[in-house]
């Protein structure tokens, strides 16, 4: 019933920009916490950024000042704008949704529990 799907990945040169989009179904989208994760080659999956129902955001240190997460609730969409890309950003990027934390009213930063995951979109940054 509820689904998420990423798009916008591609190949860019170091220093370039790329924008990822995640479309999510569900009439309660505005209450979801949405997160972006990534998994580079030979690496574990890591959290990139989150945005909650009150537009509060969290970023891992390595992307602060370069990446921006935003949401458009009217379109059931969350975006990840990536600027000043580095080869270290090369990864499969995943969009995920936490459907339930809104019920607590708590900002959990990097500690949300995600229920739904997209299939991923490849981002490759060449040196």
Descriptive notes:
It is a single chain. By secondary structure, the protein is mainly beta. Helices cover 0% and strands 46% of the residues. The protein has strands spanning 4-7, 10-13, 18-24, 33-39, 46-51, 57-59, 67-72, 77-82, 91-98, 116-117, 121-126. Strands 2, 4, 5, 6, 9, 10 and 11 form a seven-stranded mixed sheet that branches. It has a four-stranded antiparallel sheet with strand order 1-3-8-7, with no helix packed on it. A hairpin with a 5-residue loop joins strand 5 and strand 6.
Oligomeric organization of the protein chains: single chain
Mean pLDDT, all residues: 96
Largest sheet geometry? 7 strands, mixed
Strand/helix succession: EEEEEEEEEEE
User: Beta fraction of the residues?
Assistant: over 45%
Query: How large, in whole angstroms, is the Cα Rg?
Result: 14 Å
Q: What percentage of residues falls in helices of 4 or more residues? A: under 10%
Q: DSSP helix count?
A: 0
Poorly predicted parts: none
Anisotropy-based shape: globular
Tell me the total number of β-strands.
11
Name the structural class.
mainly beta
User: Could you give the distance between the termini?
Assistant: 41 Å
């Amino acid at each position: 019933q509820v689904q998420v799907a990423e798009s916008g990945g591609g190949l860019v040169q170091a220093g370039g920009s790329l924008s990822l989009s995640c479309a999510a179904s569900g009439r309660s989208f505005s209450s979801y916490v949405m997160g972006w994760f990534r998994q580079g080659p030979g690496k574990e999956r890591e959290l990139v950024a989150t945005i909650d129902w009150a537009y509060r955001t969290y970023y891992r240190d390595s992307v602060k000042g370069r990446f921006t997460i935003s949401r458009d609730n009217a379109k059931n969409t969350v975006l990840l704008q990536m600027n000043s890309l580095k080869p270290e950003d090369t990864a499969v990027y995943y969009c995920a949704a936490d459907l339930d934390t809104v019920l607590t009213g708590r900002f959990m930063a990097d500690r949300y529990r995600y229920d739904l995951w997209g299939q991923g979109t490849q981002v490759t940054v060449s040196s």
